[in-house]
């Protein structure tokens, strides 16, 4: 939940997208909708079998997924565990932040797992940005 108690959907851009491996493992049956979306103001970097989003000048493509009724708390805990995210832990690879993404029906506030500061700095210094910001169109997919 947000600090104000609100429930947010999730913006997924990599292995959690519909049709991808972690979508089947973690989201199938726990969500009611997936809507194409894009996050303007971020770059997508190639990771070791999965991507990292980093705030930047590009656009990251993905989907907004909405938890099924009664699934939010469990889904939030599952995704935090998948991303090895612990609030306040300086060793996180990912951070969970709220950002506004664009959909065909308008802007949506959503949780996004982004590269933690140390990871983001390494990626900006020598990482490979995925052209077009879309994990599904990467070479070899």
Automatic annotation (TrEMBL):
Matches recorded under CDD domains: GGCT_like
Gamma-glutamylcyclotransferase AIG2-like domain location: 10-136
Gene3D superfamilies associated with the record: Gamma-glutamyl cyclotransferase-like
Ranges annotated as spanning the membrane: none
Organism domain of life: Bacteria
Coiled coil: none
InterPro entries, A to Z: AIG2-like_dom, GGCT-like, GGCT-like_sf
Protein name: Gamma-glutamylcyclotransferase
Organism, scientific name: Streptomyces polyasparticus
Lineage per the UniProt record: Bacteria, Bacillati, Actinomycetota, Actinomycetes, Kitasatosporales
